[in-house]
Structure formats: C-alpha cells, structure tokens
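tool_call predict_complex ligand=adenosine-5'-triphosphate
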Amino acid sequence: MKDQKLGKILIIDDNEDLLKAAKIFLKRHFEQVDTESNPGLIPILMVNEQYDVILLDMNFTKDVSSGQEGFYWLDRILTIDSSAVVVLITAYGDVTTAVKAIKEGATDFVLKPWENEKLLATLHAALKLRKSKIEVIQLKDQQQQLLQDMDRKFKDIIGQSASMQKVFETIDRVAATDANVLILGENGTGKELVARAIHRNSKRHREAFVGVDLGSITSSLFESELFGHKKGAFTDAKEDRAGRFEQANKGTLFLDEIGNIPLTLQAKLLATLQNREVTRVGTNKSIPVNIRLVSATNMALHSMVHENSFRQDLLYRLNTIEITLPPLRERQEDIPLLANHFIDIYSKKYNKDIRKAGEALIKRMQKYHWPGNIRELQHSIERAVIMSKHSVLQPEDLFTQNHILPEKQDEMVSLEHLNIEDVEKILIRKALQKHNGHITRAAEELGLTRSSLYRRLERYGL
Ligand SMILES: Nc1ncnc2c1ncn2[C@@H]1O[C@H](COP(=O)(O)OP(=O)(O)OP(=O)(O)O)[C@@H](O)[C@H]1O
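tool_result ok
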C-alpha cells in the first residue's frame, strides 16, 4: 500500500528559487506545500489554512542579516496560534540567532543551504510535535467541557420552600469563610450538592474539591486513605501514597458519611484538624496541610456522642456551622419544581417530548413518603420519562411501576404475584422506612453489607 502523505507545510522565504526547489522536493512527501515570499501575508494564510509546520526565513530585506524580521514574524505566528510549530531557516554559522529563536518559541532550525534528507527529517519530527500539541489541546478542551458539565450538574439546587431558602442563606453566609461545615440529612437530600456549592462559592474554588465516602471504605483502609502511607507500611502499600488530606491541600476536603469513622481513628482525625498537619502511615514526619473541611452524615451524630460512639470534641471541631437538609416529604412545595426540573433534563437526554408532571401525579407524589428523598425522585422520573407515552406524566407512569410501591400495607400486591426481586425491593424499602433512611442500620437488619445494599438501591432505583 502506498504511504499516505500527511502534513500541511508553509514555507516563507524571499528567495523564489529556493521556494520552487523546496516545493518540488517536499510535495513528494507531504500532503500540501504552500510557499510565499512576502511575510506580510502570513496572518491571512494562517486564517485560510491550518498549517502543521511553518518553515520561516530569518531575514527578508536585502542585505539585512540580524534576524530581527524573523523574530518579529515568529512572534506574530505564535500570537495567532500558540500551538504553531515553526522551523527557522538560518544562515550557515549563525547558531546564536538560532538558539535565541528556539528560546522564543521556535521548534527547530535548518541551516541554509540544506541537504534535502536533513530537511525532511527535521520536518517529520516537527510534524510529530504538532500532532501531540493538537492532542493536548483536544484533551484540555475535553477536560474543560467535563468540568463545565460537572459544574452545571451541581449548580442547580432546586428549592423554594422556606427550609431550603434558609439553607441557601446559610451557604451564602459561610461559603467565603474557612469555617468547618457539617451537613446533616437523610440519604439523597442533597448533602454532596450543598458541599460542592460551598466549595464553588468559596475563595478556594479554583483548587481541588476532594470527596471521600467513608461509608464505602473498609475500616482497615481508612487511615491510609485519609492520611496516606509510606511504601511497605502494610502488605498492599506498594509505593508511597499521599492521602486525601494532602490531595485536598489548598482546597476543600469533603468527608461524606463521617459517622462511619471508627472511634480509634477519631482521635487521629481530631489531631490532624487541630495541628493542621498529617502523618502518613508508616512515617513519623508531619506534613502541613491547608484544607477547608466539609463533612456530612445521615446519622444522628449528637445521639452518637451520648452513646459514646462519636467523640464530642471531634463533633465540635466539625460543626462550627451545621446545616440540616430537610427530607423531601417535609417540603412538599418543592416536589413540583423538582419533578419538572428532572423531566426537563431527562426529556432532553432521551429525546422525548414530555412537558411536565400532571396535577394528579403531583398530588400523588406529595402523599408519598420518599425514603430515598431526591435521589429516589430523580431515578423515578428518569425511568418514567423513558417508559411513558404521555406528554404530561400521569400517576401510573411512576406509581404502577414495580420500583415505587404503594406505602400503605393494604395497597400491596399479595406475595403470589411477586418475584424474588419484587420481594427484595419491598424488604429493602421497609427496612429503610423503619430506620429513617439510615443505610448502616437498614443493611444490618437485612443482613447485607452497606455496599451491597447501596448496589441494590442503585439497581432498583430506590
Ligand atoms: N435540591 C436539589 N435540587 C436538584 N437536585 C438535587 C437536589 N438535592 C439533591 N439533588 C440530586 O439528588 C441526588 C442525590 O444528591 P446528593 O448525592 O447530593 O445527596 P446526599 O445527601 O449526599 O446523598 P447520600 O447521603 O446518599 O450520600 C443527586 O443526583 C443530586 O443532584
């Protein structure tokens, strides 16, 4: 198979003979070779074509050999396209100018008169560089896009109820301070959303927001996850590793499910917060850290202090400011807003033409208990949008599906009509209701680990 010719080259030189010869030779190796003797046309040429490599002479005016013109045009080219790859054509013996040009942003230089093979090798290397520069730009764009999407995703905290307005006011007042914030609330009430909003509105918003879900880390890994470790500190410590505290340096550390932190580690966490330094597992050296701490839990931390399963001094460190998120069933006026917000999102996502939730559905939703709070509402709406044939969602779009079961016992379908999955869903829902959405206790009652209960909640959209 014949090699495919790649690369668009622009040559700028006032010597027409040189341009002609170079074009004839290079056309055999590259996709496109344009030549121009007037450097003043560079900006227009660059607008009309995306050149991969620009071969640029240093001197254009007769009898001038200072290279000043070359530097001027090099600067213009890089201003127009900071990822342009410029190879300079310099006179034999003028290595000082060439070195200076590279410092100013040129990629390489070729000496005049050149040997064709050397020129070819230089241009191929330059082309490779251009390709990787473009890849880097594309990756950066993608990352930017992802960050923007994330930002948008977490920007919309919906809520007009008095209790949510109070939450917004508190976020406004505390975000700019460095005060530690403890967010309390049942599962799915938006604790992480609020933590991110605090970070986004703080002085640290350009730095990292590092979240750790303490509910999903096994207790043996707690310490190394938070504080890091030295290679060899324990069997699986294959290399030195920074913990989440260090990763969040200068930014915000979000400790989710803080109620899960074992008593033995609570003292170390307290010392870290007091001294503002961490000690990696397996070392004695303290590393200073500068973090803003936001923590969250669905557990009753204050009662845990009374039961001696959570240290009071640690609680006082965490809750300089306390924000309690109300469960969804206690702010029914937000239900229509939330439902229509998610209908909008999922109609777009799944390309459906669903306008809103009908009145009967809203009424039905306002009577429902929502043990999984907004997460449950969100998942139910997503499923209803996918399945519904109506342009205005009706009660049966949400409430006849297996995943949302009637709350009242007498509305329940008898066991003989259910399969194992249905029964599992009923049991999980009952356990969650009994323990007020408290995952650890519900998991204990069901004989499941927290993570396998989480997996089921995710699978069933509970
Ligand atoms: N007020 C709100 N407006 C819009 N979406 C919300 C709101 N509150 C929560 N959500 C959405 O509900 C889902 C659950 O929210 P989030 O993860 O913040 O809850 P959580 O309290 O941290 O849950 P968990 O206790 O299970 O960790 C997310 O998809 C979030 O975007």
